[in-house]
Structures are given as C-alpha cells and as structure tokens.
Amino acid sequence: MREVILLQRSTTSAISAVCVLGCLVACNISPSPEPNATLLDLAAIAHNDAAVLQSKNTDLVQQRHTDFEELISEIQRLCGTNSEGKVPDSCSNEVVQAAVDKHAASLKETATESDAATRSAQAIVSAIDSAPSESLGLLGQQLVDLVRAGAAAPQSGIAQLDPRDEINKGTSKDDLIQDGDTLKKALDWEYSAIYGLGVALAHSPAGSKNAVSDAITAHRDRVELLESSFAESFPNEPIPRPEAAYEFSGYPEPHDAQSARAFIDSLEADSAAWWLHALSESHSPTWRSLCASLAAQSAVQR
C-alpha cells in the first residue's frame, strides 16, 4: 500500500525555495539588463484588469492589483542590482511602468469579472513557454488564483491535445526526457487520486455522485495522456502502474457525505499544489504547458 501525504504545506515551501534560488541566480546582471518582455505583457494585463474592474471593488480587483505588484517585483528581481545595490536604470520603476502603460493601452476592456479572469488565465498559459524558468512558481500560483476566482480552465496547451501528435509534431522526444522522473511521479499521483476519489464516491450522497464521477473521469483522462506521453518518450521502459491501494495520511477519512466532500476538496487542492510544484521544477516547454494546464484544471471548483 502506497502512502499519500497531504501536500499543500510542503509544496508551497518547495516553490518558495525555487524562487529563492532564482533570486541568487538573478543577482549576476548584464551591464544593461532589459525588463523581461513576457512578464511585462502579463503585468500590463493585470494592470488593465485592475483599472477596468476598479469600480466593482471586489476580491478579483484586489487580486489583480496584487498580481501586478508581484510581476513588477519579479521583473526587477530578474534585472538584478548594480554595484550600488540598486535596480539598474534600465529596469527602474519609471521605465517598467512606462512599458506596462504602453502595452495596457492596446488591450481591450473586458465586460465582466469572469471574462477578465478567463482572459488573464489564458494569457498566463500562453506565456508559460517563454517565461523565465525561475518565475514559473509565481505564474502558476497566479493562474490557479484566477481559476478559483471564476476563470474558465484554460483550453490551450498540451493538456487539450493528443499527446502522441503533440510530441511528434511539436517537440523532440528528448524534450520530455528532461522531465522523465517527474512524469513518473505524476502518474503515481494521478493513480492515487483516482483511487481516493473512488473511495469518496462510495460515501457521497446521490446529489454529488455525478460531480465526483466527473472528477474521476478527468483524472483518468490525465492518466491516459501521461501514459501515452511516457510510452512515446521512453519506448524501452515499462509504463508505471498503479499500486493495489493507497493510504491517505492527513486527509479527512471519508465515512459520510460531509467527510467525503472534505476529502475530495483536500485532494483536488493538493492536485493543484502538486502540479504547481511540478511546474516550478519543469524543464521542457511541453511539460511546462501540461503542468500549467493541469494545475488550472485542478483548481476548478466542482
């Protein structure tokens, strides 16, 4: 029996550690570093969202303000500091804000909060391939927050494609090989999620069984995608298979409707956290897109 431990705290710490490492790397700067264009684009979208929705005075407005500030801080962190310990002139507040304002002026206003959240979530998924690797933890968390705020789960990325076609057309097999160890761990995680949801299904009331069944189907779809990806990238290795049973440490034990709901919510929150952690450690564009999309899908409230 394989033990599954509640992940949320340890995963957050791991993402933080990646960000700290990125900070150390970013301190060696070029003579005139330029603000990262991908992060500038995302900052402009966040800035536009906050401005357009300002009159609504909702949690999403505050979230987009926070997202904007985090992105500006990340841009300047990546620029590093000069010999005086200051942000270089090429990445000053004035320069970065001017670039953000210029891009934000070209954006279309969105009519509803849901539209804004969905557009912004989709923008993050589309930007994952070109974003700095040390910024992936931040972008992944903003993506999940947007989905939880009402954005539709992103519809682009490898998670919506036939993995065989995607690997054959869009990437080399060496691309996914870089993330092979995490791919194996991902399969084990998804196997455990299916097992746990199956246990919870038995204790769920009739009115919620369809939602739990849909969640199981979603995780089975992920397994099919991951197994196909593994077979294409590692043709000489056997595909990892599920354990006979999994023990869930730290989770509510499903024994009635209320505890089953608590178990499902904890498991899906951990699914989002698991894929965020995988994103923060990803190497290849294909795997980045997959991790981001599955983290977002896990964050959808069922």
TrEMBL record:
Domain DUF4439 span(s) in chain numbering: 183-300
InterPro entries: DUF4439, Ferritin-like, Ferritin-like_SF
Source organism superkingdom: Bacteria
Name recorded for this polypeptide: DUF4439 domain-containing protein
Organism from which the protein derives: Corynebacterium rouxii
